[in-house]
Each structure stands twice: as structure tokens, then as C-alpha cells.
Amino acid sequence: MAEPARERLRVLVVDDHRAVAEAIAMAIDLRSDMRCVGVASTLAEARAVFLTGAPDVLLTDVRLPDGDGVEAARRFTELNPDLRILVLTAYADVDVMARAAAIGACGILPKESSISSVLTAVRRAGEGEMTVEGSVLSALLNRVHPDHPAMSPPTVTLTDRESEVLRWLSQGLDPQTIARRLGISVHTCRGHVKSILAKLQAHSQLEAVVKAMRLGLVREGHG
Question: In this structure, how many other beta carbons lie within 10 angstroms of the beta carbon of residue 159?
Fold first, then answer.
């Protein structure tokens, strides 16, 4: 008996440049595994689409005509805690990155990212995986480490294997690549990631990495 087809990932695209949002939406709709439930160029439009379209993934710009995209995303997660968030930004603003990580965003993408990169990030967000460029992640972790010294003693205890997985996550690797490096199955690796998120009370891999940094559970640059 054939397995039932997986439901397509529902995506809401928010960008103050309508043409950009519509181009991304068109590319999404060409995929068999995802569909765009709406585009918006303001927060007011985004809220209306969010309430009717029930998106799984929110892809949002930061600076919008009527407010802040990251703050809006935080409010949306209060209505749907399972919402996956991807933040598009034209500025290398570490404060924006930190706020995005704090609300559990799955990824931070430069606005000049290719359509292919955006689609890959959306797919990975749907699977709960992190998408952050190495330079962005390094900037974020460099900001976290000096400003937030390790708590002593750590309030979270990880197994040796979880610590290994976390170390690779902090370098931007995805679970598939980590699994190959550690010689374990992807299923097992994802189980470790799930356990790490639970122990750190994090809503995304990115949030987990930042929290781990603050707790001194991982050191930026170790690999």
C-alpha cells in the first residue's frame, strides 16, 4: 500500500518589497513539497494572512513600514508555538540576530540570498533545522560569549554524545552532516538534537546554540 503524500509545507512570505515577496512566493509554489499561503509587505497584511492561512513557516523581513518583523514573529509564535521562523535581513546587525535567536528563529538569511538558498532554508525550517551562514553565526556567538560569561555551575547536563552534536551544530552543520561525521544514523542524530533542545528549553537549533554559549557548554571556534 502506497504511503500517503506528505502535506505541503505552508509558507507566509513578508517583505517590504512586494516584488521580492512575490518572486519568492512563485518559486515556493513551483515546489511539490511547499506552497505559499500568502505574501505581505506590511505587518497588518501579515497578521491577516497569518490568521487565515495557518502557515507552518514564516519568512519575514526585519524592517517593515508599520513595525518590526522580529517582534511580529514573536507575537505570532504566541498564537502558534510550532511556527518556524526565518528572518531576512539586509543589514549585518548583531542585535537583530540576537533577537531572532531569542524568539526561536530557525534561520537568519541575508536578503541577497539566492532563491535556491531561501527554498532550502524553508525546507530545513520545516524540519526544525537551522540555517545560518558561518559568518553570521560567528558574529552572533562572538557577541554572546564576552557579554554573557559562563554560568557556574552549568544548570544543564549533556551527555558526551549530545555535547559532540552541539559542538558541530554551533559550527553551522546540519544533522545529516553531523551524523556522517560521528558515524551514526540521521535518526539517532536528530534524537540527540531533540534532547538538546529539550534540556536547554530552546525552540530552535539556533536558540539552543546561543543558550549553550551563554551556559559555557560550547566554545566558539572549537572543532
Answer: 12
